[in-house]
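JOB MANIFEST
job_type = single_chain_structure
chain_count = 1
residues = 334
[input]
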Amino acid sequence: MEFRYLGNSGFKISEVTFGNWLTHGSQVENDVAAQCVRAALDAGISTFDTADVYANTAAEKVLGEALKGERRQSLEIFTKVFGPTGPKGHNDVGLSRKHIMESIDGSLTRLQTDYVDLYQAHRYDYETPLEETMQAFADIVRQGKALYIGVSEWTADQIRDGHALSKDLGFQLISNQPQYSMLWRVIEAEVIPASEELGLSQIVWSPMAQGVLSGKYHPGKPAPEGSRATDTKGGAKMIDRWMSDEILTSVQQLKPIAAEAGLTMAQLSIAWVLQNKNVASAIMGASRPEQVAGNAAAAGVKLDEAIMDKIDGVIGSLAERDPAQTKSPASREA
Protein backbone atom coordinates (compact mmCIF):
# COMPACT_ATOMS: atom_id res chain seq x y z
CA MET A 1 0.00 0.00 0.00
CA GLU A 2 1.16 3.52 -0.82
CA PHE A 3 0.21 6.66 1.13
CA ARG A 4 -0.37 10.28 0.12
CA TYR A 5 -0.69 13.55 1.99
CA LEU A 6 -4.25 14.85 2.26
CA GLY A 7 -4.35 18.41 1.02
CA ASN A 8 -1.89 20.95 2.34
CA SER A 9 -1.42 19.09 5.60
CA GLY A 10 0.98 16.65 7.22
CA PHE A 11 -1.74 13.98 7.35
CA LYS A 12 -1.24 10.85 5.24
CA ILE A 13 -3.90 8.39 4.11
CA SER A 14 -3.77 5.15 2.14
CA GLU A 15 -4.14 5.48 -1.64
CA VAL A 16 -7.09 3.12 -1.42
CA THR A 17 -9.76 3.88 1.18
CA PHE A 18 -12.27 1.27 2.30
CA GLY A 19 -15.80 2.69 2.21
CA ASN A 20 -19.05 1.10 3.36
CA TRP A 21 -21.74 3.02 1.49
CA LEU A 22 -24.52 0.81 0.03
CA THR A 23 -23.11 -2.28 1.73
CA HIS A 24 -22.64 -2.40 5.50
CA GLY A 25 -25.80 -2.28 7.51
CA SER A 26 -27.96 -2.94 4.45
CA GLN A 27 -26.76 -5.19 1.60
CA VAL A 28 -24.14 -7.19 3.50
CA GLU A 29 -24.54 -9.20 6.69
CA ASN A 30 -22.51 -7.89 9.62
CA ASP A 31 -20.16 -10.86 9.81
CA VAL A 32 -19.30 -10.52 6.11
CA ALA A 33 -18.83 -6.79 6.58
CA ALA A 34 -16.36 -7.48 9.37
CA GLN A 35 -14.50 -9.92 7.10
CA CYS A 36 -14.26 -7.20 4.43
CA VAL A 37 -12.79 -4.76 6.96
CA ARG A 38 -10.28 -7.40 8.08
CA ALA A 39 -9.34 -8.03 4.44
CA ALA A 40 -8.79 -4.29 3.98
CA LEU A 41 -6.50 -4.15 7.00
CA ASP A 42 -4.62 -7.20 5.73
CA ALA A 43 -4.15 -5.45 2.37
CA GLY A 44 -2.52 -2.49 4.11
CA ILE A 45 -5.52 -0.15 3.92
CA SER A 46 -5.54 2.14 6.94
CA THR A 47 -8.22 4.62 5.84
CA PHE A 48 -11.93 3.94 6.33
CA ASP A 49 -14.80 6.12 5.13
CA THR A 50 -18.43 6.05 6.20
CA ALA A 51 -21.30 8.48 6.92
CA ASP A 52 -24.09 8.77 9.45
CA VAL A 53 -26.68 8.64 6.68
CA TYR A 54 -25.49 5.25 5.35
CA ALA A 55 -28.16 2.70 6.30
CA ASN A 56 -29.49 5.39 8.67
CA THR A 57 -26.49 5.16 11.05
CA ALA A 58 -26.15 1.35 10.89
CA ALA A 59 -23.06 1.50 8.66
CA GLU A 60 -21.15 3.50 11.28
CA LYS A 61 -22.06 0.93 13.94
CA VAL A 62 -20.84 -1.94 11.76
CA LEU A 63 -17.55 -0.19 11.03
CA GLY A 64 -16.98 0.72 14.67
CA GLU A 65 -17.53 -2.86 15.74
CA ALA A 66 -15.29 -4.22 12.96
CA LEU A 67 -12.41 -1.91 13.93
CA LYS A 68 -12.75 -2.50 17.67
CA GLY A 69 -9.45 -3.62 19.13
CA GLU A 70 -7.32 -2.12 16.38
CA ARG A 71 -4.66 0.44 17.34
CA ARG A 72 -6.54 3.73 16.87
CA GLN A 73 -3.41 5.74 16.02
CA SER A 74 -2.76 3.44 13.05
CA LEU A 75 -6.15 4.14 11.48
CA GLU A 76 -7.69 7.08 9.64
CA ILE A 77 -11.46 7.10 10.20
CA PHE A 78 -13.69 9.43 8.17
CA THR A 79 -17.38 10.14 8.47
CA LYS A 80 -19.83 12.74 7.18
CA VAL A 81 -22.80 14.88 8.17
CA PHE A 82 -25.73 16.32 6.21
CA GLY A 83 -28.18 13.61 5.24
CA PRO A 84 -31.33 12.81 7.22
CA THR A 85 -30.82 10.44 10.15
CA GLY A 86 -32.81 8.98 13.00
CA PRO A 87 -36.53 9.67 12.71
CA LYS A 88 -35.65 12.25 10.03
CA GLY A 89 -37.27 15.16 11.82
CA HIS A 90 -36.98 18.81 10.82
CA ASN A 91 -33.59 19.25 12.53
CA ASP A 92 -32.25 15.78 11.69
CA VAL A 93 -30.74 16.94 8.38
CA GLY A 94 -28.48 19.64 6.98
CA LEU A 95 -25.50 21.60 8.24
CA SER A 96 -27.07 23.67 11.01
CA ARG A 97 -25.05 24.03 14.19
CA LYS A 98 -27.65 21.92 16.01
CA HIS A 99 -27.46 19.04 13.56
CA ILE A 100 -23.66 19.10 13.27
CA MET A 101 -22.99 19.21 17.02
CA GLU A 102 -25.48 16.43 17.73
CA SER A 103 -24.33 14.36 14.77
CA ILE A 104 -20.64 14.30 15.66
CA ASP A 105 -21.45 12.92 19.11
CA GLY A 106 -23.69 10.24 17.61
CA SER A 107 -21.04 9.27 15.08
CA LEU A 108 -18.31 8.99 17.71
CA THR A 109 -20.52 6.74 19.84
CA ARG A 110 -21.36 4.45 16.92
CA LEU A 111 -17.75 4.33 15.71
CA GLN A 112 -16.52 3.64 19.26
CA THR A 113 -13.85 6.33 19.07
CA ASP A 114 -13.05 9.61 20.80
CA TYR A 115 -12.39 11.42 17.52
CA VAL A 116 -12.60 11.08 13.76
CA ASP A 117 -9.61 11.97 11.64
CA LEU A 118 -11.73 13.70 9.00
CA TYR A 119 -15.27 15.08 9.39
CA GLN A 120 -16.92 15.98 6.10
CA ALA A 121 -19.86 18.11 5.01
CA HIS A 122 -21.62 15.50 2.90
CA ARG A 123 -23.28 18.10 0.68
CA TYR A 124 -23.63 21.90 0.62
CA ASP A 125 -26.56 23.21 2.65
CA TYR A 126 -28.35 26.08 0.92
CA GLU A 127 -30.67 26.55 3.90
CA THR A 128 -28.01 27.26 6.54
CA PRO A 129 -25.62 30.25 6.51
CA LEU A 130 -22.17 29.00 5.60
CA GLU A 131 -20.75 31.00 8.52
CA GLU A 132 -22.84 28.95 10.94
CA THR A 133 -21.68 25.67 9.43
CA MET A 134 -18.00 26.60 9.45
CA GLN A 135 -18.15 27.92 13.03
CA ALA A 136 -19.60 24.57 14.15
CA PHE A 137 -16.77 22.73 12.39
CA ALA A 138 -14.21 25.04 13.99
CA ASP A 139 -15.63 24.27 17.42
CA ILE A 140 -15.55 20.51 16.76
CA VAL A 141 -11.89 20.76 15.79
CA ARG A 142 -11.08 22.76 18.94
CA GLN A 143 -12.93 20.20 21.05
CA GLY A 144 -10.74 17.46 19.55
CA LYS A 145 -13.70 15.54 18.15
CA ALA A 146 -12.36 15.86 14.59
CA LEU A 147 -8.76 16.44 13.58
CA TYR A 148 -9.47 17.71 10.06
CA ILE A 149 -12.46 18.99 8.08
CA GLY A 150 -13.45 18.23 4.51
CA VAL A 151 -16.41 18.58 2.18
CA SER A 152 -18.11 16.36 -0.39
CA GLU A 153 -19.53 17.25 -3.79
CA TRP A 154 -19.07 20.99 -3.32
CA THR A 155 -18.61 23.21 -6.35
CA ALA A 156 -15.44 25.21 -6.92
CA ASP A 157 -17.11 28.42 -5.70
CA GLN A 158 -18.49 26.70 -2.60
CA ILE A 159 -15.04 25.31 -1.81
CA ARG A 160 -13.54 28.79 -2.19
CA ASP A 161 -16.09 30.35 0.14
CA GLY A 162 -15.73 27.59 2.74
CA HIS A 163 -11.95 27.70 2.58
CA ALA A 164 -11.87 31.45 3.18
CA LEU A 165 -14.13 31.15 6.23
CA SER A 166 -12.18 28.20 7.63
CA LYS A 167 -8.95 30.17 7.52
CA ASP A 168 -10.62 33.09 9.32
CA LEU A 169 -11.81 30.64 12.00
CA GLY A 170 -8.39 29.09 12.53
CA PHE A 171 -8.63 25.81 10.63
CA GLN A 172 -8.44 24.73 7.00
CA LEU A 173 -10.47 22.60 4.66
CA ILE A 174 -8.13 19.91 3.37
CA SER A 175 -10.31 17.66 1.22
CA ASN A 176 -13.26 17.21 -1.09
CA GLN A 177 -15.01 13.89 -1.72
CA PRO A 178 -16.47 13.86 -5.23
CA GLN A 179 -17.51 11.19 -7.66
CA TYR A 180 -14.71 10.59 -10.19
CA SER A 181 -14.02 7.90 -12.76
CA MET A 182 -13.16 7.43 -16.42
CA LEU A 183 -16.87 7.96 -17.11
CA TRP A 184 -17.48 10.85 -14.69
CA ARG A 185 -14.93 13.66 -15.01
CA VAL A 186 -16.98 16.67 -13.97
CA ILE A 187 -14.45 17.83 -11.35
CA GLU A 188 -11.61 18.26 -13.82
CA ALA A 189 -12.59 21.65 -15.26
CA GLU A 190 -13.22 23.68 -12.08
CA VAL A 191 -13.09 21.73 -8.80
CA ILE A 192 -9.59 20.31 -9.22
CA PRO A 193 -7.97 23.62 -10.27
CA ALA A 194 -9.58 25.40 -7.30
CA SER A 195 -8.54 22.61 -4.95
CA GLU A 196 -4.95 22.68 -6.18
CA GLU A 197 -4.84 26.44 -5.64
CA LEU A 198 -6.29 26.25 -2.13
CA GLY A 199 -4.52 23.13 -0.87
CA LEU A 200 -7.28 20.51 -0.93
CA SER A 201 -7.06 16.93 -2.17
CA GLN A 202 -9.79 14.75 -3.64
CA ILE A 203 -10.91 11.52 -1.96
CA VAL A 204 -12.92 10.08 -4.83
CA TRP A 205 -15.89 7.77 -4.70
CA SER A 206 -17.16 5.36 -7.35
CA PRO A 207 -13.87 5.06 -9.28
CA MET A 208 -15.35 1.94 -10.91
CA ALA A 209 -18.59 3.75 -11.87
CA GLN A 210 -20.62 1.57 -9.50
CA GLY A 211 -18.87 -1.53 -10.85
CA VAL A 212 -19.50 -0.94 -14.55
CA LEU A 213 -15.78 -0.40 -15.21
CA SER A 214 -15.02 -3.82 -13.75
CA GLY A 215 -16.32 -5.26 -17.03
CA LYS A 216 -18.82 -7.59 -15.38
CA TYR A 217 -21.78 -6.14 -17.30
CA HIS A 218 -22.19 -7.00 -20.98
CA PRO A 219 -24.37 -5.25 -23.60
CA GLY A 220 -27.56 -7.10 -24.39
CA LYS A 221 -27.16 -9.52 -21.48
CA PRO A 222 -28.87 -9.56 -18.08
CA ALA A 223 -26.87 -8.31 -15.11
CA PRO A 224 -25.18 -11.06 -13.05
CA GLU A 225 -27.31 -12.27 -10.16
CA GLY A 226 -26.30 -10.60 -6.91
CA SER A 227 -24.56 -7.69 -8.65
CA ARG A 228 -25.23 -4.05 -7.85
CA ALA A 229 -27.42 -3.70 -10.93
CA THR A 230 -29.85 -6.24 -9.44
CA ASP A 231 -29.92 -4.67 -5.97
CA THR A 232 -33.33 -3.21 -5.14
CA LYS A 233 -32.11 -1.39 -2.01
CA GLY A 234 -30.47 1.45 -3.94
CA GLY A 235 -27.67 -0.09 -5.95
CA ALA A 236 -29.65 -0.57 -9.16
CA LYS A 237 -30.81 3.04 -9.14
CA MET A 238 -27.26 4.35 -8.75
CA ILE A 239 -25.79 2.23 -11.54
CA ASP A 240 -28.61 2.72 -14.05
CA ARG A 241 -26.99 5.73 -15.75
CA TRP A 242 -24.09 3.56 -16.95
CA MET A 243 -26.09 0.57 -18.21
CA SER A 244 -26.67 1.61 -21.83
CA ASP A 245 -25.41 -0.74 -24.55
CA GLU A 246 -23.20 2.05 -25.92
CA ILE A 247 -21.35 2.48 -22.64
CA LEU A 248 -21.15 -1.25 -21.89
CA THR A 249 -19.78 -1.95 -25.37
CA SER A 250 -17.07 0.66 -24.95
CA VAL A 251 -16.15 -0.60 -21.49
CA GLN A 252 -15.53 -4.08 -22.92
CA GLN A 253 -12.93 -2.46 -25.20
CA LEU A 254 -10.91 -1.58 -22.09
CA LYS A 255 -10.16 -5.27 -21.45
CA PRO A 256 -7.12 -5.52 -23.76
CA ILE A 257 -5.81 -2.23 -22.37
CA ALA A 258 -6.01 -3.58 -18.83
CA ALA A 259 -4.32 -6.80 -19.95
CA GLU A 260 -1.52 -4.80 -21.60
CA ALA A 261 -0.98 -3.00 -18.28
CA GLY A 262 -1.03 -6.31 -16.38
CA LEU A 263 -4.14 -5.30 -14.44
CA THR A 264 -7.71 -6.40 -13.97
CA MET A 265 -10.29 -3.94 -15.24
CA ALA A 266 -11.19 -3.02 -11.67
CA GLN A 267 -7.54 -2.32 -10.90
CA LEU A 268 -7.23 -0.26 -14.09
CA SER A 269 -10.18 1.95 -13.11
CA ILE A 270 -8.81 2.57 -9.61
CA ALA A 271 -5.29 3.16 -10.90
CA TRP A 272 -6.67 5.59 -13.49
CA VAL A 273 -8.12 8.00 -10.89
CA LEU A 274 -4.90 7.78 -8.86
CA GLN A 275 -2.91 9.10 -11.81
CA ASN A 276 -4.44 12.50 -11.07
CA LYS A 277 -2.01 14.17 -8.67
CA ASN A 278 -4.84 15.98 -6.87
CA VAL A 279 -6.44 12.65 -5.92
CA ALA A 280 -5.16 11.46 -2.55
CA SER A 281 -7.22 8.28 -2.37
CA ALA A 282 -9.84 6.22 -4.20
CA ILE A 283 -12.71 4.79 -2.15
CA MET A 284 -13.37 1.11 -2.71
CA GLY A 285 -16.33 -0.80 -1.40
CA ALA A 286 -16.74 -4.56 -1.18
CA SER A 287 -19.52 -7.04 -0.57
CA ARG A 288 -17.11 -10.00 -0.34
CA PRO A 289 -13.70 -10.08 1.36
CA GLU A 290 -12.02 -11.67 -1.66
CA GLN A 291 -12.71 -8.50 -3.68
CA VAL A 292 -10.57 -6.38 -1.41
CA ALA A 293 -6.98 -7.54 -1.94
CA GLY A 294 -7.22 -7.45 -5.73
CA ASN A 295 -8.61 -3.94 -5.88
CA ALA A 296 -6.18 -2.67 -3.23
CA ALA A 297 -3.34 -3.78 -5.52
CA ALA A 298 -4.12 -0.76 -7.73
CA ALA A 299 -2.25 1.39 -5.20
CA GLY A 300 1.17 2.44 -6.44
CA VAL A 301 0.45 1.52 -10.08
CA LYS A 302 1.83 3.95 -12.65
CA LEU A 303 0.04 4.05 -16.00
CA ASP A 304 2.17 5.33 -18.85
CA GLU A 305 1.00 8.00 -21.25
CA ALA A 306 0.27 5.49 -24.00
CA ILE A 307 -2.14 3.55 -21.76
CA MET A 308 -3.86 6.75 -20.64
CA ASP A 309 -4.27 7.83 -24.29
CA LYS A 310 -5.78 4.47 -25.22
CA ILE A 311 -8.30 4.77 -22.39
CA ASP A 312 -9.30 8.23 -23.59
CA GLY A 313 -9.65 6.85 -27.10
CA VAL A 314 -12.11 4.21 -25.92
CA ILE A 315 -14.16 6.35 -23.53
CA GLY A 316 -14.12 9.53 -25.63
CA SER A 317 -17.33 11.54 -25.54
CA LEU A 318 -19.06 8.99 -23.30
CA ALA A 319 -17.46 10.62 -20.26
CA GLU A 320 -19.59 13.23 -18.47
CA ARG A 321 -17.51 16.41 -18.13
CA ASP A 322 -20.06 19.16 -17.41
CA PRO A 323 -18.97 20.94 -14.19
CA ALA A 324 -22.62 21.84 -13.54
CA GLN A 325 -23.15 18.17 -12.63
CA THR A 326 -21.38 18.87 -9.32
CA LYS A 327 -24.37 19.87 -7.23
CA SER A 328 -26.10 19.50 -3.91
CA PRO A 329 -29.84 19.25 -3.27
CA ALA A 330 -31.57 22.60 -3.60
CA SER A 331 -33.35 21.96 -0.31
CA ARG A 332 -32.95 19.49 2.52
CA GLU A 333 -36.07 17.67 1.41
CA ALA A 334 -34.90 17.24 -2.20
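[summary]
Residues 97-111 form the longest helix (15 residues).
The beta strands are 3-5, 12-14, 16-19, 47-49, 76-81, 116-121, 146-151, 173-176, 201-204, 279-284.
exit_status = 0
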